[in-house]
Amino acid sequence: MSSPPQVLAERFRVALGNAFGPELADVDPVIRPSQFADFQANVALPLAKRLGSKPRDVAARLVESLGLSDITQPPEISGPGFINLTLRPEWLADQVRTLARDPRLGVPTEPSQVVPIDYSAPNVAKEMHVGHLRTTVVGDALARTLEHLGHRVVRQNHVGDWGTPFGMLVEHLLDVGEHSEEAELLVTSPNDFYQAGRAKFDGDEEFAARARRRVVALQAHEPETMRVWRELLELSKSYFHSIYTLLDVTLTDADLAGESSYNDELAQICDELEAAGIATVSEGALCVFLDGFTGREGKPVPLIIRKSDGGYGYGTTDLATIRHRVRDLRADRVLYVIGAPQSLHLQMVWATARKAGWLDDDVEVVHVQIGNVLGADGKILRTRSGGPIKLRSLLEEGVDKAGQVLAQSRPELSPQDREAIALHVGIGAIKYADLSVSHDSEYTFDFERMLSLTGNTGPYLQYAAARIRSILRKAGSPVGDADVVLTEEAERLLARTLLGFGDVVTQVGVTLEPHRLCGYLFELAQAFTTFYESCPVLKADDDSTRASRLVLCSVTLDVLVVGLGLLGITAPEQM
Questions:
Q1: How is the chain split into domains, by residue range?
Q2: Are 214 and 225 in contact (CB under 8 A)?
Q3: Statement: the pTM of the whole predicted model exceeds 0.85
Q4: CA 386 to the chain's CA centroid
Q5: CA 477, CA 463: separation in Å to the nearest integer?
Q6: Cα–Cα distance, 89 to 146 (Å, whole number)
Q7: CA 367 to CA 372: how far, in whole Å?
Q8: Nearest residue to 495 (alpha-carbon basis) of 455, 521, 532, 528
Q9: Cα–Cα distance for residue pair 528/466, rounded to 1 Å
Q10: How does pLDDT run across 26-62, given as a tens digit for each residue?
């Protein structure tokens, strides 16, 4: 179903064609909420100059041609030519009843596309840190939303699991024993394992020599080395799984698409690009020089695809990645949820892939740029010693702080209930704080603000859902399919807001901006709060009003739960 602005805009397009000719039927009317009416249309002002008429005269002709009697009260012209529109309560109520019966709550199902999404991308044997938070959370929200819209999403967790350091890590694992307590650090504290191996590499020449030989064996796929490498990977998978479970994201082992999976293709990629004259040798390295990519003093910036020592870098692997996603996955749209500083690199990779014929013009590739998470000092969030904050520590602290808040606000809760609710609230608060700002901007990490029950926060929305659940429990019977009657302005505001859900989810699918959904859900929660405070539900004046308001409560709960779910946030039963 369409939202009121969509319905009104379509009626305006018909009226434009009838009043001024079919050549104006494609004009996009601007329909916005207004303080003077439900909506205000700004159509006449931009058309007046084009038509050589006064804006109010254009507005008057439009009003004469508008067929809106079934939807709005008679339109009114205000100011220099604005058209004010007030929805008929009966039409609005009927739309809410339709929404209540719709299992998709007004969200359309779009023609399906294949959409690989590259997100999270941690490194094997290294701790995930706060820098991984945003790419994981934003990528997962986009994956959930696009799937809900009907697309086939292919999650691509491009983990770092290949290269020179793995000779050192394999050798260190063999030294300490694959089933030793130190090996278990790969599951509980990967950085400690990595740093121990690094210290040996830097301080023990005999170990360093063995590690270098192990790199050669790894690149040659020597069976025993590959077996130990796979064991290293399995231990790291357990660590990844523990983080993803705590963070409540949809990534699984099946979504791992590590650098190693492209290793056998890299030599061929270099050969093809060199044979086609796209890549040339420069200072011993095989490079691609592209028009329009220059650095300081206008010097061309190379995309290095084979280093002078014969090794391969990110550029080579990323070329193999885009080729795989287009050729093998049959992608229609490819999303890279990666830090903003990688923009130039990705543009060069895509330009090279297009030149090589691996990336078709009809395949859309998008860099969903991720900004930094800042501390209170306005700098990138780090530990006091200057190191990156471990993601597990950050998440556990959020859950702990949520538990402390609950202990004060709900002392009657059992420890088990408090623990379960704190998990949903703490993780939801962190995710919502991230998702509620534009993904390419920076934001300041602040637990006190995140966990607040007021303002644009996850707990505020979760609390709104919990409050509605409480109302419905106290109602004592199913809501049913009651008539909806909208007599109070707070009821009308809530109804109008509910009808915008489908539009917003569709917009997120197009713009890839989850903060739009966050903003909508916050607006909905505010509208419900206004309704709750001014319109008694369980103590309504009569049974029909009570039944009508229970329908509004029920639909609001459904939209909040589904909307938060698309963001990857759980709405607990109570708070």
A1: 4-87, 163-248
A2: yes
A3: yes
A4: 29
A5: 22
A6: 33
A7: 15
A8: 528
A9: 12
A10: 778 899 998 889 999 999 988 888 888 999 999 999 9
**Structure confidence by residue, pLDDT tens digits, 193-203:** 999 999 999 99
Residue 44 in tokens:
């006449």
Residue 204's CB: how many other CB atoms inside 10 A?
12
Burial 489-511 (b: 16+ CB within 10 A, else e): ebbbbbbbbbbbbbbbbbebbee
Q: What stretches of 340-391 adopt beta strand conformation (E)?
A: 364-370, 373-374
Give residues with Cβ within 8 angstroms of 533, minimum separation 6. Answer: 490
Residue in 405, 431, 404, 397 with CA at minimum distance from that of residue 521: 431
Tens digit of pLDDT for each residue in 93-152?
A: 999 999 999 999 999 999 999 999 999 999 999 999 888 999 999 999 999 999 999 999
297 has pLDDT over 80? no
Place of tokens 């602040």: 446
What span, in angstroms and rounded, lies between the C-alpha atoms of 552 and 39?
21
pLDDT interval class at 385 (50, 70, 90): low
- 141-168: burial string, b at 16+ Cβ within 10 Å, e else: bbbbbbebbebebbbbbbbbbbbebbbb
Give ∠ CA 164-337-285 in degrees, rounded to 5: 35
**Position 234, amino acid:** E
Q: Can you give the pLDDT at residue 477?
A: 82
| Residue 311 to residue 165: CA distance in whole angstroms | 13
CA distance 401 to 5: 42
Helix (H), strand (E) at residue 30: strand 30-33
Cα–Cα distance measured from residue 292 to residue 301, given in angstroms and rounded to the nearest whole number: 9
The pLDDT, as a whole number, for residue 159 is 95
Domain 4-87: CATH superfamily, name plus number:
Arginyl tRNA synthetase N-terminal domain (3.30.1360.70)
Q: What are the structure tokens assigned to 257, written together?
A: 């698409």
